Amino acid sequence: xxxxMIAPNFSKGVGFLNVDHFVLPxxxxxxxxxxxxxxxxxxxxxxxxxxxLSFEDTVDYIVKSNPDVLGLSVVSMNYVPGExxxxxxxxxxxxxxxxxxxxxxxxxxxxxxxxxxxxxxxxAGEGDYVIDELIDYNFATEKLSKIDGLIYKSNKxxxxxxxxxxxxxxxxxxxxxDIYPKPLKYYKPAINNYKRLPSIGIITSRGCPSQCTYCQxxxxxxSVRMNSVDYVIEHIELLTxxxxxxxxxxxxxxxxxxxxxxxxxxxxxxxxxxxxTWACFIxxxxxxxxxxxxxxxxxxxxxxxxGVESGSSEIIKLLRKGIDLSHxxxxxxxxxxLGIQVRPSFMLGNPGETRETLxxxxxxxxxxxxxxIGITYFTPLPGTPVWDDVDKHGDFDKGDPNSxxxxxxxxxxxxDLNYEDLHLKMNKLYSQFYLRPSLILxxxxxxxxxxxxxxxxxxIPLLSxxxxxxxxxxxxxxxx
Length: 480
Known about the structure:
Elements: E1 2-6, H1 27-38, E2 42-46, H2 55-65, E3 69-73, H3 79-92, E4 97-101, H4 109-112, E5 121-123, H5 130-136, E6 150-154, E7 157-160, E8 199-202, E9 205-206, E10 225-226, H6 229-242, E11 247-250, H7 259-271, E12 277-282, H8 290-298, E13 301-309, H9 313-318, H10 325-338, E14 341-342, E15 345-348, H11 355-367, E16 374-377, E17 394-395, E18 413-414, H12 419-434, H13 437-444, H14 450-458, H15 460-478
Parallel strand pairs: 1-2, 1-3, 3-4, 4-5, 8-11, 11-12, 12-13, 13-14, 13-15, 15-16
Antiparallel strand pairs: 5-6, 6-7, 9-10, 17-18
């Protein structure tokens, strides 16, 4: 049994960082591949980005490889190329069973299980064991109802099983790092997401108790499940010893939620003298303890990334973020004092957004003692609480699948705004933030850090392209 696993990503960047330097191994693809390898199947991972494969090259490779099963990891933002890839492969080889999974498939089953679609089966929940179970049941229709999370067709009717949830995450094997198409050293996060190379992202928990209106995580089981401390440390030791990984990004939504667990992870990293630097996403209201931040710093944490989304308390309330801007300010100040970098993220053009709230976000971002910021445009995603009534808040074309393919240009325009409002504010915020003399002076201190210095030297070509794009934005703004 030969299986090809792929995340059909062919994009080339975000916003003014319109480059193709940012490539990370797909965690979900690696995890499912590991489950399949344990059953003795032949598994091939295809990564178009790191292998520099065009869409056509990818289709050709899959068809020529003639797998029994093609598994696609699909999110809303790569649904269009994923669906087209499945359709093209199926057109040239109808014998390949094509299975897709991801949060996008939680809604509107008929959309992707139509007669003209390329997917034979779809998984809407946590699909770690779905392909394995399908093979075990030999794809027998009468047994498909037993597979949690599966969506399939029976007698021309779309059938939808209950969502699949893995309760004990420690039972899952580590991702199949050995079969990624290139060694881990060839993967590289965005320049402001790593401190040293090789760097890799891992996930140590699932579920999120938050109710954010824009996040697809809110449509799944909200029960938080976490790997044990021992499992996390064993995973990190594997990465550092076997693959020489020196930096880790924890992709968890809730990595800092349980402080006792985080303290234990930090204590073991220190006790075992595991030489890594690491970064994580945080909720600003879950980590305002200076003692914990100090412990994280001692254990190798160099960067925390709070999701702020807006500098307007009114917008934050509408998004149901459950945070207070004072929490963000406090965390940023403590982290800055301790020498931990902070990169808050913001969304522009949220439902209810006005020129006034945009300015509040602008002012708040510039007031924080941080070295970097992340900015995207608000993009409604299928299945999220805001999706059903998004038309009440502004202009958005639900019927155009390309409208959810990017957050680097506005696809949703709030009632009180227009495209130019958003586009100009994004460009102005980036340019004023990064070209401030105070920020340049702040960043100069990192030239004494050998790891930061190496990162800057290695990234000179990328930085040159970024600065060119940034100055072009400024030039266009001045001539509007």
